[in-house]
């Protein structure tokens, strides 16, 4: 009985002290914004917008922050974009919903969705944060990794690697640089 009551008393004391500690402990917040000096990391604001690399606000990240570009959602955001008008705004002058790289990278046969995945990754992904997606053919995988930011003609630009893996196992990696071209667009530079 002594053992049981001693164990019981110890459990009661532990429970009480844990309750006191829980009540008196300061409330901890685990959701943290990226550091202010890290511009390559997208930051979600209180208004639920994502702040991109050059300060533009975006409503969605399209999976970029988790390392995957969601082609289906990106395609829906591009919507009525056709006939080479990627990067322009609609006649209503509604804000763009997604960043786009205007040039086809290394002359590759990329569609608008691939170019939007590149542009949005450049806009939101942190340095060394890889973003992957499958091409329209379902047999090609793209892996984009922003490497570093740099200044060119007063613009905040980025250097990145793009790895293309085909179903035959062929892998090509190329390094490129891109600078903002306005309205969330990016342009490949030398």
Give an account of the 3D structure.
The radius of gyration is 24 Å and the shape is globular. The protein contains three helices and nine strands, in the order αβββαβαβββββ. The longest helix is centred in the N-terminal third of the chain and has 23 residues, at 2-24. It is 23% helix and 27% strand. With 190 residues, it is of the alpha+beta class. The protein has a six-stranded mixed beta sheet. A three-stranded antiparallel beta sheet has the order 1-2-3, with no helix packed on it. The model is unreliable at 11-40 and 80-93 (pLDDT under 50). It has one domain. The protein starts with a helix and ends with a strand.
Note the quaternary state here: single chain
Major sheet size, sense and barrel closure:
6 strands, mixed
The average pLDDT is 75
Binned, the helix content reads: 10-25%
List keywords for this structure.
single chain, alpha+beta, six-stranded mixed β-sheet, three-stranded antiparallel β-sheet, 3 helices, globular
Strand-helix topology:
Elements: H1 2-24, E1 43-44, E2 50-51, E3 57-58, H2 71-78, E4 100-101, H3 112-124, E5 131-134, E6 141-152, E7 155-165, E8 171-182, E9 185-189
Parallel strand pairs: 4-9
Antiparallel strand pairs: 1-2, 2-3, 5-6, 6-7, 7-8, 8-9
Helix pairs in contact: 2-3
